[in-house]
């Protein structure tokens, strides 16, 4: 009976940068390729920082695959790059342009709705030429198996589809990776949570306040004591006529501090340092959030099984190189490499070898070494050891540490250390590099900001209310509604908060038979599908049906 | 597979669009003409046929020259290939009978006989639901009405349809008919595209049609009386046996009804409410 099912040579699930690169490469190699994307339009589900990089050493770049990409799909190129170390009002700014430019051919800011929908058009044209095409509003909900072997995909909106290759480019919280047992959603230490606001600003104001021309842009990063001790940092990127301002934090640290993501974002938005750019004006166009895998811990070195290959976030291929976040570029490389692996294997009459070829290419092309640097494994074994970490942390914070910082700055070492790709890739995931060191640097070397920043970001209710949803059945169900099991989501969910009744997760005290139970309740209506509660709460977590759920206009 | 959809323009009865004079008569000049809303279901059914089986879709209407825009709207919706408008002064003021005779002659006039003719359920202005079945009667073809789902076997030249019995969603029967055949799509008709291939073709058709609909007049043929050469006794006002004796406006509900506010916590007052309601409640 499965012989009646439709068959394509390749099915690509997800049309973000990974899926687009895979599909374009397959089509260029003449492979009949069907692309399935769950959003009403590509990009409508996606949130990124985001700066997309074209690395000199990468096997593939987005403009290599789509030559008009930079002129049609991206915003401004990044021509200046700064890190601000913050302690109260004290700020010490370090120019990180060298680190940013290391191994970089170019890097542009992007907004995902615009970028991905542009890619969608190109990918559909290319794949249509070889007998396939791209469909939106279709959510793949599982793998089709025959005698235990993966042979295709199942969807809510379509009959099952068989394929010789299945490329899962379905992003973070990949249901296909989970279905195949190649990734799990257990450990908060393997993830970051990114939250972002898009702020309206005319090009003329950007030019004046950032001192840039039309074809120039700036990136500013922020770390130090402005985030309640949560490990992570903030960013501000210039788009054509808006700003992307956001935060990225280690998920385990957010949970440990029971911090509210939207409040941490507000802490950045209202810091006096931002007054020079916002100048008392603030119109938020969109609020969004998404999990981000940490490749150092999460990237699967063997991301394939039978006919299935995982690319991009689905395989955990998201590199945090110190403060620089590189996910989209690696998704592009991996997508194209998986496609290349399949078409080579198919030409040789052995399509079953595609997965192994893909794994080899990831290694030989140097992608895996960037995602999981061995030197990080060694350094982190020492640096993240509890005792060592706390000694380092107190040392940096001590008068001796400060003397060191001052000396390092005098000798130019500080700038050099921050601009060293090597140092950045071995940085341990402890409080020291994220909080203690930046704070100590700002205290020792910083100058106080005199301006007042009196912008008032919208509250959570307004932020949620401004988003577009089309809700179907609840796509998340609580398996265990005790506070002990699922309570972390009340604060970690970016659209919920402890004292807010209008979000997804709510804290509830229920009296039964004289004793009080501490429970949580869930209403998925305002969910932005960030994936956080799939990790930090005990849930049955799925994406909503095709075309349903939140729709980002900016991304 | 060649399908034809019969459609017509009706006054836009939506709030804010429609305009009536003091006596409650429709002011045609002030009310825009739109495609009869129920025809959308016929269009959906024709589109599903085109997507699944390929071929061409034609749209036909009888009416004044202004209906061209209605056909254009239909072209964009159903990705139609060509449009036909039966239009002539002599055909004006026709009732459903004269209209059916005109349309049937129009169908005979097409270069290629359609395999399936789709008609809407009923029109928003006349509400009769006669035109489709009467046109079919003129053609002497089988007809399936109240269709909610459709499958065509091209090789066997048969059509299998799920239809509502007596228009009731609770009772659905499956019937088979030979082609050519008339189909009246019910408002409950839901097109289904469960194959990726069909959705991709749907996308192709949409892209193709955008251009065509802009230059729709290149794909439009007007059949006038000279062309169709109809018996003058069977068309227009002369061919219409229907006599409209009068029009009774449906009285509007009074804007303010008598209401008494009751405090739900006032038990005595609530008891009175229940007493008032009792006669309207179920028998037990
Ligand atoms: C706040 C924030 C800041 C970031 N900053 C940067 C940055 O500056 N630079 C950078 O390079 N990266 C950044 N990233 C990371 C980057 O966004 C991701 O690494 C990148 O998008 C991964 O690409 P992908 O193609 O693997 O997945 P995605 O871009 O997530 O695309 C996955 C696609 O699959 C679709 N999909 C998912 N499930 C299904 C399904 N079941 N069926 C059908 N379709 C499905 C989704 O709708 C989506 O379109 C940031 C992320 C966040 C959240
Ligand atoms: S309910 Fe879960 S997935 Fe949805 S926004 Fe909250 S944490 Fe994210």
UniProtKB/TrEMBL annotation, chain A:
Q: Which cofactor(s) are needed, names only?
A: FAD
GO MF terms on file? oxidoreductase activity
The record's keywords, sorted A to Z, are:
FAD, Flavoprotein, Oxidoreductase
Please name the Gene3D superfamilies in this protein's record.
3.30.9.90, FAD/NAD(P)-binding domain
Question: In this record, what's one Pfam family?
Answer: FAD_oxidored
UniProt keyword Oxidoreductase, yes or no: yes
- What's the protein here called? FAD-dependent oxidoreductase
Annotated organism of origin: Halorientalis pallida
TrEMBL record, chain B:
User: In what residue span(s) does the Electron transfer flavoprotein alpha/beta-subunit N-terminal domain sit?
Assistant: 23-209
Q: Give the GO molecular function terms.
A: electron transfer activity
List every stretch annotated Disordered. Answer: 247-266
Which SUPFAM superfamilies does the record associate with it?
Adenine nucleotide alpha hydrolases-like
Q: Name one Pfam family in it.
A: ETF
List the PANTHER family hit by this protein, alphabetically: ELECTRON TRANSFER FLAVOPROTEIN BETA-SUBUNIT (PTHR21294), PROTEIN FIXA (PTHR21294:SF17)
Q: Which protein are we looking at?
A: Electron transfer flavoprotein subunit beta/FixA family protein
């Amino acid at each position: 009976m499965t012989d009646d099912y439709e068959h394509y040579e390749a099915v690509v699930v997800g049309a973000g940068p990974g899926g687009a690169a895979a599909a374009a490469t397959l089509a260029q190699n003449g492979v009949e390729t069907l692309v399935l994307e769950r959003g009403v339009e590509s990009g409508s589900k996606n949130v990124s920082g985001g700066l997309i990089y074209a690395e000199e050493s990468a096997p593939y770049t987005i403009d290599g695959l789509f030559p008009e990409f930079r002129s049609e799909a991206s915003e401004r190129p990044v021509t200046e790059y700064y890190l601000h170390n913050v302690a109260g009002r004290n700020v010490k700014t370090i120019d990180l342009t060298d680190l940013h430019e290391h191994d970089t051919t170019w890097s542009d800011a992007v907004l995902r709705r615009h970028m991905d929908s542009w890619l969608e058009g190109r990918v559909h044209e290319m794949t249509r030429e070889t007998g396939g095409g791209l469909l939106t509003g279709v959510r793949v909900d599982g793998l089709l198996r025959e005698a235990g072997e993966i042979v295709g995909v199942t969807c809510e909106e379509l009959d099952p589809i068989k394929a010789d290759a299945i490329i899962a480019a379905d992003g973070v919280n990949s249901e296909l990776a989970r279905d195949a047992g190649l990734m799990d959603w257990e450990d908060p230490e393997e993830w970051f949570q990114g939250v972002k606001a898009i702020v309206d600003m005319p090009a003329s104001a950007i030019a004046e306040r950032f001192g840039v021309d039309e074809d120039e842009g700036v990136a500013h990063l922020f770390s130090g004591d402005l985030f309640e001790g949560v490990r992570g940092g903030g960013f501000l990127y210039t788009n054509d006529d808006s700003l992307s301002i956001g935060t990225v934090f280690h998920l385990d640290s957010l949970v440990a501090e029971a911090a509210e993501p939207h409040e941490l974002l507000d802490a950045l938005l209202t810091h006096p340092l931002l007054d020079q750019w916002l100048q008392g004006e603030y119109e938020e166009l969109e609020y969004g959030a998404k999990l981000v895998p940490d490749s150092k811990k999460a990237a699967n070195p063997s991301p394939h099984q039978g006919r299935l290959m995982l690319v991009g976030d689905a395989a955990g291929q998201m590199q945090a190189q110190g403060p620089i976040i590189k996910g989209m570029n690696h998704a592009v490389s991996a997508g194209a490499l998986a496609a290349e692996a399949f078409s080579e294997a198919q030409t040789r009459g052995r399509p079953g070898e595609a997965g192994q070829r893909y794994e080899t290419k990831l290694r030989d092309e140097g992608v895996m070494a960037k995602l999981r640097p061995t030197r990080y494994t060694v350094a982190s074994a020492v640096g993240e050891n509890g005792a060592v970490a706390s000694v380092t942390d107190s040392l940096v914070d001590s008068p001796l540490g400060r003397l060191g910082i001052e000396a390092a700055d005098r000798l130019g070492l500080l700038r050099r250390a921050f601009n060293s790709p090597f140092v950045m890739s071995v940085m341990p995931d402890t409080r020291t590099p994220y909080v203690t060191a930046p704070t100590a640097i700002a205290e020792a070397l910083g100058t106080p900001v005199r301006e007042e920043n009196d912008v008032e970001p919208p509250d959570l209710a307004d932020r949620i209310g401004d988003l577009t949803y089309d809700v179907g059945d609840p796509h998340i169900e609580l398996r265990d509604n005790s506070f002990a099991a699922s309570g972390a989501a009340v604060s970690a969910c970016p659209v919920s908060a402890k004292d807010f009744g209008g979000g997804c997760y709510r804290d509830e005290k229920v009296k039964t038979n004289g004793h009080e139970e501490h429970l949580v309740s869930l209403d998925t209506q305002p969910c932005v599908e960030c994936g956080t509660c799939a990790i930090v709460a005990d849930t049955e977590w799925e994406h909503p049906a095709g075309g349903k759920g939140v729709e980002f206009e900016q991304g | 597979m060649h399908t034809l959809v019969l459609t017509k323009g009706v006054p836009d009865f939506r709030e804010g669009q429609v305009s009536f004079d003091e006596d409650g008569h429709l002011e045609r000049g002030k009310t825009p003409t739109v495609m009869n809303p129920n025809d959308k279901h016929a269009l959906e059914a024709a589109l599903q046929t085109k997507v699944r089986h390929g071929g061409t879709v034609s749209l036909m209407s009888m009416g004044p020259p202004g209906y061209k825009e209605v056909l254009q709207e239909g072209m964009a919706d159903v990705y139609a290939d060509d449009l036909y408008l039966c239009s002539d002064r002599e055909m004006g003021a026709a009732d459903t009978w004269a209209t059916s005779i005109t349309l049937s002659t129009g169908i005979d006039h097409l270069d290629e006989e359609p395999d399936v003719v789709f008609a809407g359920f009923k029109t928003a202005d006349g509400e009769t639901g006669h035109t489709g079945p009467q046109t079919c009667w003129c053609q002497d073809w089988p007809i399936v009405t109240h269709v909610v789902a459709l499958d065509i076997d091209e090789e066997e030249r048969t059509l299998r349809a799920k239809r509502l019995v007596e228009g009731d969603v609770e009772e659905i029967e499956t019937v088979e008919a030979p082609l050519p055949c008339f189909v009246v799509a019910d408002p409950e008709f839901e097109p289904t595209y469960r194959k990726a291939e069909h959705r991709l073709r749907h996308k192709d058709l949409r892209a193709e049609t955008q251009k065509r609909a802009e230059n729709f007049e290149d794909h439009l043929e007007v059949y006038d009386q000279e062309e169709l050469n109809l018996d003058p006794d069977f068309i227009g006002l002369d061919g219409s046996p229907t006599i409209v004796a009068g029009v009774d406006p449906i009285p509007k509900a009074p804007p303010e009804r008598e209401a008494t506010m009751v405090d739900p916590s006032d038990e005595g007052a609530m008891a009175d409410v229940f007493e008032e309601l009792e006669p309207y409640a179920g028998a037990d």
